[in-house]
Amino acid sequence: MQMTSYPQGMPCWVDLMVEDPTKAAAFYGSLLGWHVPPGRPDFGGYANADLGGRLVAGVMPKMAPDMPSVWSTYIAVDDARATLDLAVQEGASPIVPATDVGSMGTMAVFADPQGAVIGIWQAGEHIGAHAIAEPGTLRWNELAARDFDAAKAFYPAVFGWEASEFPGGGQYIMWNVDGRPVAGMMPMPETVPAQVPSYWLVYFEVTDCDESVATVTALGGQVVVPPQDAPGVGRLSMVQDDQGAAFAVIAMQPRDEANGGAA
Length: 263
Hints:
This protein is of the alpha+beta class. About 20% of the residues lie in helices and about 40% in strands. It has an eight-stranded mixed beta sheet with strand order 9-10-11-8-12-15-14-13. It has a seven-stranded mixed beta sheet with strand order 2-3-1-4-7-6-5, with helices on one face. The radius of gyration is 18 Å and the shape is globular.
């Protein structure tokens, strides 16, 4: 899906922070078909990955050796400074203050009251990803929350999200903007160690989940959650790349199957 702008509250960008961006370029190039040129020195080595000439994600070196390798989600906002102030009023902890990135836009990063880190992006010349929701691009962003009810109050207050339950039961929330699902939330899985805070997980769309997971392992990555079917959605798996950054891959169920045969 080609994108030319993002409304307030919609995830618009993801980026990866790793020890070795060149190694990451090879990994994601093989897995998702990305081209990742060397990062620009004037932007701290930050590089924009593209798929067929369309920007899809960012890759940057760690700012300190002890920082984790991690994928980060950014939410489109109309006013980054005002949104950060509102998030702090609602109990968030600022990590990166609202910062102008040249003429590209304005960013900020904060941790929600349960420790889940998320970024915000006020677009300038850079709108975010040029393509989403197709193989090789961002498909979904999902919060695993320690305190489900607290998160259910925090995010609508900050981003204006509306919550709805996922059809088919279970404790899963769809976050909506203007009636359109843009992200999800689930309770923290019981298997996750107690010291791990709430976190946002990035999903990339692929054509074949099992084949992509096999590629991840062949490239030196690890499987965290083996491929499994999500009824009405598709087949998905949570993995780590060869530098330890966690993400998920998902092969979407064909639309006619997902809608019980409807076109």
